[in-house]
Design brief:
Layout (H helix, E strand, L loop, with lengths): L7 H7 L12 H4 L1 H13 L3 E5 H5 L4 E6 L2 E7 L3 E5 L15 E2 L4 E2 L6 E2 L5 E3 L16 E2 L1 E4 L2 E4 L8 H5 L2 H5 L8 E10 L3 H8 L5 H4 L1 H6 L6 E2 L6 E7 L25 E7 L3 E5 L4 E10 L2 E10 L7 H25 L14 H14 L7
Antiparallel strand pairs: 1-11, 2-3, 2-5, 3-4, 4-9, 6-7, 7-8, 10-11, 12-18, 13-14, 14-15, 15-16, 16-17, 17-18
Helix pairs in contact: 7-10
Amino acid sequence: MANAPVDPTALAASLRPHGESVMLPQAAYTDPAVLAWERRNFFAATWTCLGRADELAAGTTYRATVVGDVGVILTFGDRPRAFANTCRHRGHELLGQGGTSDRRSVVCPYHGWSYELDGAVKAAPRMGDTFDPAPYGLTELPSEVWHGWLFVNALGTAAPFSEHLGGITDLVAPYRPEALSLKARHNYDVASNWKTIVENYHECYHCPLIHPELCKVSPPTSGDNWNLPGAWVGGLMDLRPGVETMSLDGGSRGIPLPGVDPRTVNYLGLFPNLLISLHPDYVMTHRLEPRSPGVTAIECSWYFPDEVDDPSYAVEFWDVTNREDWAACESVQRGAESPHFRPGPLAPAEDAVYQWVTMIARGYLGKSLTQ
């Protein structure tokens, strides 16, 4: 693939050792050409999370979406599958973006070709008795369901999903997110670049100044960051003595998740767009979708054991904290758009941000994300 339209000299400064490096250059946060490159080479070419498989399948047999800049059809037959949203006859879209259907076959609205939910041609009207439809099934794209979330590689060129996950697998598995139920969801439109939101998530250097509620229940200098294989970044933080979970009063009205550390919270960012926050009694995710260089849509979801009826203690805490973070990220975006912006250095406590920045910079230069 072609390298990103970002000055390689500036990226070299971001790739210096931690303590000598600086943030990504301005174009990474403001240039539409960079976002277009990211949509193709980060979101379409790697493993993008589209949401929970059971939610995507609810009430439908197939739906159309866009992964990065590639149109995709998701079908729900014997298992979730992903296909290019392109009829194998003349290339017409099989379904408009965002559309859904409950038909048992995918029907092209142009000439009526139809496909089974496994992608095989079901009917090709008036193509003649000698026509063999077998070679003209839909183009299947790699897809995986992991702990209930559906991931798609829309270009079909990514490294194996297991390699993408690397060491994050063992950290998430004890929480069994697939066994938890969605209890609340908030959607936010944040006037900030998607990478700035991830960078903010991966450090608590800012916490004493903007998160009094968080600092009340979790020491901002606690914990440590992971350095394990895979295309992800993350670390953990401790709960203060006597605190049961991340809530406004430190108390939990939920059910402790069995087999997990009751004294820590893990904050994990799986490239490119899923942030997973693992608490002693619930799991919270942020799923990011860039709308423009300066706007990101965020779906924040809370998952609990099915028996929990009232998730508000966690939702209220994180809605306050989210909004504090979004205000900070929006201010960073305005600053990044200034003609006077220059990339700044990273503090020692921002080592997870350094891991993220160097992952992005390597990707811009066509190198492995998991290096």
